[in-house]
Write a structure and sequence with these properties.
By secondary structure, the protein is mostly helical. The chain is built from ten helices and no strands. It starts with 6 loop residues before the first helix and ends with a helix.
């Protein structure tokens, strides 16, 4: 997979994909539907439902503003009512607002629920990475390390190494942090991320 500098880049890429491919998201569920008539009805329903969810997601998240509580409540309701990828994306967007207003417990609960709403591996990786960062902010280093273990895919290696190093350093394990950052710097990371990891290692000296 493509290597991203941070999870925000991947969120944007996923958002564009899901906005354009509402119907494709549902294809895997049709296995086992035998009747052709049932399949046609289901396919049309899912297509329309996917498009409607996509349009509503884009409308709500575009209007979301921290100084307008009603806009946040609308996104929260959408995330709660849509147990699908669009609901997970909405939760991801809303969690950022919660973090910026220091409502970390709300952000964590939102992200944990979002993980149950999507089977897309890349989106799950993004959610887990953001969850680990928030857990680290709450001085829950062990929880963050456990969450990082759920991130799958080689393309995330450097970002995982970055957060793992921070978690280990917060526990007083300087050597563990150095090893994590060194591993990240040696991976297929972007030049900017490699430079940042090298700077962190230099600061340990």
């Amino acid at each position: 997979m493509e290597v991203y500098s941070n999870e925000n880049e991947q969120v944007d890429a996923l958002r564009r994909f899901f906005a354009d491919n509402g119907k494709a998201l549902a294809i895997g569920i049709v296995v086992g539907i035998a009747a052709l008539g049932g399949w046609r009805y289901w396919s049309a329903h899912q297509d329309n439902s996917g498009k409607a969810s996509s349009a509503q997601y884009q409308k709500l998240t575009s209007a979301m503003q921290a100084d307008k509580p009603q806009s946040l409540e609308a996104v929260a309701a959408f995330a709660s009512e849509n147990n699908n990828t669009y609901g997970a994306l909405a939760a991801l967007d809303l969690s950022k607002q919660y973090v910026e207003t220091s409502q970390l417990d709300k952000a964590i609960t939102l992200l944990q629920n979002a993980l149950k709403d999507t089977s897309d591996a890349n989106l799950q990786a993004v959610i887990n990475l953001r969850l680990a960062r928030i857990q680290l902010q709450q001085n829950q280093a062990d929880a963050a390390l456990k969450t990082l273990g759920n991130v799958k895919g080689d393309g995330w290696g450097a970002i995982v190494a970055d957060i793992r190093g921070e978690a280990l350093l917060s526990k007083g394990d300087k050597q563990g942090a150095r090893d994590a950052w060194s591993k990240g710097a040696d991976s297929q990371a972007s030049p900017a991320l490699k430079q940042m990891l090298q700077m962190k290692m230099n600061n340990l000296s």
